[in-house]
Write a structure and sequence with these properties.
The chain is built from 16 helices and 14 strands. Strand 9 and strand 10 form a beta hairpin. The two termini are about 15 Å apart.
């Protein structure tokens, strides 16, 4: 067998996509709460007119309801336990702890909620894996301070991390700092709180915001290591191999450049502890000025590197800068753009399905960093159909996950140190890209449509029992077939 005896099988969610209760018990609004739902979500956020105003007369906001995990978490954790989860990756909503983000004292009701959630996991022997910031910085910090480009945010995050780690580190071993931190190269609104009217189109601001996040990440590692000797604090990013469409040297180089800019820059800093030498070329290509540093920043980044690398993997992307393919062959997905790979199939949302790409990714990351790897997101978004008898036969999801787990197995045999696998959206939740419910990932169906209609009743899909068997056999049921 390839997977360790203590391999962390489980599932993943995010506070802003599942909790709902967006203004309950003292919680303040987050940037996610101000993002309208619908297929035009990103277009709205990218417009100069968008100013973070929540306008319920004009837009719908599915995140405000989520799937009501805030009130139903005990029911949901019980279902995860029935599947046999060893780990549950979730995030803490920063604005549930510090509603505005710049307060001196935390909201105790928010801390009480996460304390209860953690205890519920531990009751079933489920290891919590907590992301400190998953696309939901307090809205006040984005509106009044301009997001992560402002150095003051570092101190506010340090206070938040100090409170949360101080309260829960004794019970929680695994943490991550920023979700998909590298996504800002394409879309800085989610992770950096930047919009066009506050300078998102200027890459100088993006690199400055990253620097502040690197400092904040190092501070979180420092805080955690001082609290608990065996604590594990990782970084988290999107990872996708970029394949050149053909052997043309320009496409080969384009592929290398995109992997450096998208896949490696942020992890090079957080894992290796220093800015890579190719950063100067990135600044030049993106017409950006070097970030302003304060005394001690580089030493802090160097001293407090992350303990492991967590990443999301959904797809690969092909690059073609010489125009061998036309515009009709454009492809995109998970904040990436490229061209259609003629050797791959794609999901209903156009995300190209590439299990072997996961093995390639694991090997590339392991060869580069030599730190434990943790796949904290992977899955297939699809429109599930509930039959007349209530069943949901999601064989397409089973097939997708089966092939990716087989790729993980091969990567481990290749020598990769892989510590866990938490597929995305283990229970249906609101899509980050569009705010839709119809783009479903879960093993558990939630009765809720894109307009917010439904009972919120939970029911098991066919993949529920399949994944239960995967966990029970530590993957052997897949590898033997």
């Amino acid at each position: 067998m390839s997977f360790k005896k203590d391999f962390l099988w489980g599932g993943a969610t995010a506070a802003n996509q599942c909790e709902g209760a967006f203004d309950a018990d003292g919680k303040g609004p987050s940037v996610a709460d101000a993002m309208p739902g619908g297929k035009q979500r990103f277009a709205i956020l990218n417009s100069q007119e968008f100013d973070w105003t929540i306008d319920k007369g004009k837009y719908g906001y599915p995140n405000h309801i989520g799937i009501d995990h805030y009130h139903r978490f005990k029911e949901d954790i019980a279902l995860f336990a029935e599947m046999g989860f060893k780990a549950y990756r979730f995030s803490i909503a920063w604005s549930r702890i510090f509603p505005q983000g710049d307060e001196e004292k935390p909201n105790e009701k928010g801390l009480d909620f996460y304390g209860a959630l953690i205890d519920e996991c531990l009751k079933y022997g489920i290891e919590p894996v907590i992301t400190l910031s998953h696309y939901e910085m307090p809205l006040h910090l984005a509106k009044e301070y301009g997001g992560w480009k402002n150095r003051q945010i570092v101190a506010f995050f340090e206070r938040y991390a100090t409170v949360v780690l101080g309260r829960f580190a004794a019970k929680v071993k695994y943490w991550m700092t920023f979700n998909e931190i590298n996504s800002a190269i394409e879309f800085p609104t989610l992770s950096q709180g930047l919009i066009p009217s506050t300078g998102s189109d200027d890459f100088t601001n993006r690199f400055q915001a990253w620097h502040h996040q690197f400092v904040a990440s190092a501070l979180a590692v420092k805080i955690g290591h001082e609290l608990r000797e065996d604590i594990q604090i990782g970084c988290m990013q999107i990872y996708a191999p970029f394949y050149p469409l053909d052997a043309h040297p320009e496409n080969q180089f384009s592929s290398q450049f995109k992997e450096r800019a998208f896949d490696y820059f942020t992890s090079d800093v957080q894992v290796r502890g220093a800015y890579p030498t190719y950063m100067n070329r990135l600044l030049q290509e993106y017409d950006a000025k070097a970030p302003v540093l304060e005394d001690g920043d580089l030493d802090l980044i160097k001293q407090y590197t992350v303990d492991y690398l967590g990443f999301s993997y959904y797809m690969s992307m092909a690059t073609d800068v010489i125009g061998a393919q036309g515009e009709s062959d454009a492809a995109s997905g998970n904040l990436m753009n490229g061209v259609r790979n003629p050797f791959l199939q794609a999901s209903e949302w156009g995300w190209q399905i590439d299990p072997l790409g996961l093995r390639i990714s694991l090997n590339d990351l392991w060869d580069r960093y030599q730190v434990p790897l943790f796949i904290v997101e992977n899955g297939l978004g699809a429109k599930d159909v509930r039959e007349a008898d209530g069943t949901i036969n999601d064989d397409y999801r089973i097939n997708y996950l089966k092939e990716h787990i087989r790729a993980m197995h091969e990567a481990v045999l290749d020598g990769v140190d892989l510590i866990g696998y938490t597929p995305w959206g283990c229970i249906d939740l609101v899509s980050a890209s569009t705010g839709e419910m119809s783009k479903r990932y879960g093993f558990i169906y939630v009765d809720l449509d894109d307009e917010g209609n439904g009972t919120l009743e939970r029911s098991k899909k066919k993949s529920f029992d399949w994944y239960k068997e995967v966990i029970a056999t530590n993957g052997a049921n897949i590898l033997e077939n």
